Amino acid sequence: MSIHNTSISVFAPASIGNLSVGFDVLGLAVKPIDGTLLGDVVTVSATTAANSLTVKGEFAAKLPSKKEDNIVWSCLLIFNEQLLKAEQSPVFVALTLDKKMPVGSGLGSSACSVVAALVALNTFYAKYQGFSFAKNVLLKMTGQMEAKISGSIHYDNVAPCYLGGLQLMVPDENVISRLLPSFDDCFYVMAYPGISVSTKAARDVLPTEYSRSDLISFGQNLATFVDACHRQDKSQAFAVLTDVVAEPYRTDLLPRYQASRDYLTAQGALAVGISGSGPTLFCVCDSEQQAQKFALWLQDNYLQTALGFVHVCKVDNVGATEL
Ligand SMILES: Nc1ncnc2c1ncn2[C@@H]1O[C@H](COP(=O)(O)OP(=O)(O)OP(=O)(O)O)[C@@H](O)[C@H]1O
Ligand SMILES: N[C@@H](CCO)C(=O)O
């Protein structure tokens, strides 16, 4: 097939950064059970004119109007730079971003755009020029792009969004992220209240130092959770899903969060937490019936604007995928 008459579209899913116990080091990709595409789609087509970027979709208007300020454009620039370093010739492309994800939502919105763009470009070049970057090289590029947005490298959204499942960030640049066994039978209710919280602002409220007892709790909760994942011990895993690093300092940014958390916990949720830097709340449930009940409650009690939504999700084990 000629490079000039076809296009590649890639979907990249929402994710729960931190998963309460793993600040900046754990992330879980999720997908709504009703088949809704909760994530962004980027399409790449060859063009004979100059490079271009078109933005459409429900949340397009929330993005900067100049294409140079859209992270998808930065992805194209870094990708082309890397192509040249690999002695490959970039071609002109027309990019389209279908911005389905609310910005500043805690669902990994910028990660969805970054991953969809870089995977779409990589797939495009693989199919039509027989060249592609290895997964780890592409993952590093996604980390650089995420850092450009939030001010520090953290892979807890981009890694699960790209690779799927529950990912643990490893401080080894040859590994970066490792897949952990997750609990595929659980349901994750995701409630986005319809307001925006910037990741940078939610990082700025965190202390620069922590007490020894917080340090011990953090290490113990994360280690116990990872061990429980490997043993598939669901009750142990979710019993320690407590965040001592970020949640205590971020609840003030999240109207109705504390009351919702208390209610859902009292009603038997396996765990409740802030997705990424918020404002999305996630609630882990054992059964679909319980998840649907909590979804209705969150719809009535956690949402604040008409832009808000609630989805009952499961783990997305696939990650970024060509449509
Ligand atoms: N394609 C894009 N998608 C999302 N944000 C973008 C994009 N391009 C540029 N931006 C800008 O990047 C910033 C993203 O902010 P932030 O990191 O708080 O949001 P986020 O990635 O949506 O957060 P979260 O991970 O909590 O969902 C905003 O200022 C937004 O205008
Ligand atoms: N780990 C990040 C996730 C948001 O992108 C944070 O909590 O600040």
UniProtKB/TrEMBL annotation:
Residues 246-295 form the GHMP kinase C-terminal domain. Pathway: Amino-acid biosynthesis; L-threonine biosynthesis; L-threonine from L-aspartate: step 4/5. InterPro entries: GHMP_kinase_C_dom, GHMP_kinase_C_sf, GHMP_kinase_N_dom, GHMP_knse_ATP-bd_CS, Homoserine_kinase, Ribosomal_Su5_D2-typ_SF, Ribsml_uS5_D2-typ_fold_subgr. Gene3D superfamilies: 3.30.230.10, GHMP kinase, C-terminal domain. It catalyses: L-homoserine + ATP = O-phospho-L-homoserine + ADP + H(+). Residues 70-165 form the GHMP kinase N-terminal domain. SUPFAM superfamilies: GHMP Kinase, C-terminal domain, Ribosomal protein S5 domain 2-like. Belongs to the GHMP kinase family. Homoserine kinase subfamily. HAMAP family: Homoser_kinase (MF_00384). This is Homoserine kinase. It comes from Colwellia marinimaniae. The gene is thrB.
